[in-house]
Amino acid sequence: xxxxxxxxxxxxxxxxxxxxxxxxxxxxxxxxxxxxxxxxxxxxxxxxxxxxxxxxxxxxxxxxxxxxxxxxxxxxxxxxxxxxxxxxxxxxxxxxxxxxxxxxxxxxxxxxxxxxxxxxxxxxxxxxxxxxxxxxxxxxxxxxxxxxxxxxxxxxxxxxxxxxxxxxxxxxxxxxxxxxxxxxxxxxxxxxxxxxxxxxxxxxxxxxxxxxxxxxxxxxxxxxxxxxxxxxxxxxxxxxxxxxxxxxxxxxxxxxxxxxxxxxxxxxxxxxxxxxxxxxxxxxxxxxxxxxxxxxxxxxxxxxxxxxxxxxxxxxxxxxxxxxxxxxxxxxxxxxxxxxxxxxxxxxxxxxxxxxxxxxxxxxxxxxxxxxxxxxxxxxxxxxxxxxxxxxxxxxxxxxxxxxxxxxxxxxxxxxxxxxxxxxxxxxxxxxxxxxxxxxxxxxxxxxxxxxxxxxxxxxxxxxxxxxxxxxxxxxxxxxxxxxxxxxxxxxxxxxxxxxxxxxxxxxxxxxxxxxxxxxxxxxxxxxxxxxxxxxxxxxxxxxxxxxxxx
Length: 551
Fold this sequence. Notes:
Layout: H1 2-27, E1 38-48, E2 54-64, E3 71-81, E4 88-95, E5 104-106, E6 116-129, E7 135-143, E8 147-149, E9 154-160, E10 171-177, E11 183-187, E12 192-196, E13 199-206, E14 216-222, E15 229-240, E16 246-256, E17 262-268, E18 274-279, E19 287-289, E20 293-302, E21 307-316, E22 322-325, E23 329-335, E24 344-352, E25 358-362, E26 368-371, E27 376-385, E28 392-398, H2 406-427, H3 441-470, H4 475-504, H5 508-539, H6 545-550
Parallel strand pairs: 1-10, 15-24
Antiparallel strand pairs: 1-2, 2-7, 3-6, 4-7, 5-6, 8-9, 9-14, 10-13, 11-14, 12-13, 15-16, 16-21, 17-20, 18-21, 19-20, 22-23, 23-28, 24-27, 25-28, 26-27
Helix pairs in contact: 2-5, 3-4, 4-5
């Protein structure tokens, strides 16, 4: 009996110790500085973006109260009610005069009291606040899924009305900016309302603001063109070829979170984009050019929680984005994505380098570099990307000039070989002339026409196979188009066989020409097979890059 009782007591003590440690962890005060001597002024600005994002900027000014001793700060904690934690997509802080230089931020540190989420802003160096020295910094929070649609034109938004601090703030100025052309309807608190440039501004001041203030708020507004969407995924494919072209394809996957149907969406494009096309899994979509990009018309309107996927393809002038450095080094400077108003849950960028190019480095670490026989593909992935993330980047690669002529030289070599074989056979000693049966000119023309059409169809078949491998067309489109082309090629092959037999029977000269064409076709197919086999061996690592280039 004593042994079980002893185990029970030990377990109870251990449980109490762990519980006390957990509670202490939750209630530990992250702020080690004496803040009672500080005058704290906060501008609490809330902006509602079209698409559903809520941006909260807290500009904090710290100065010394009269007759107080100077204070040195290393960090500062600020937060909001815990219920908004799971709507937070991004947070960062910066010294107010230098918005591009972010400060270090510790996430989810708490305020030493249950019910709050906070970040701890760590200053680059200790900040001395005296009678003549104040300090300003800004903490920014980006939220999503806080806006809901009440009716066709009525929307509700919930937000933290005040910041949450471990100490009192002397003054908090609250400013709420509604979307452009929106009309304020009602709220849980009384605000002063003004209009600036078609945007309604709501203001309110509270002085003082007590520590650990927890006050969620809501308001409703009316707008005819406000949308609520979930940008589930964006995949940007950027391809550089050896002839100086820069191709892009942006694939969007969106979900309509509003109660009303969604028929259009504006997709942002660089100003100098050209050769624009928009398509979905079925085919081309209607679109119109706008100042910032294109407005895409969906094939079918989206109801609530329905999703769609479409791709915007275009070209950009390469000289604006690619800089040559030295004899064979190149630098690509671009933005992964910019000028958007949503949180992109998954943003994937693939950069396909020219044939023969080798990836050297990038300003942001890639998630992967895929190497094939002739190309390298660099992939970057971002989760919960917001308009406030730094998505600019540069990438350097090495590329020798002669690669631009690789494929033309290869095909020209094959063509020269075929012509040489035909010329050799043509000049070879001929058997005694045998009377030939004249072939009608229309049969010769028909043979040439069908042969050219078959060649074009074979090239089309190779093209759609490449497009399907790169995901530019759906598997369904690929199967339909492949079946159609194969049927046409089969019919043309049957017609060519009949014409070959007819022309071969006209005499040895025509029969010899048909044999020469068949031999040339066989050798060309053999050369293509050897190239594909060599590429496959290189991809499997059976041969080195040096051996591959020599072969």
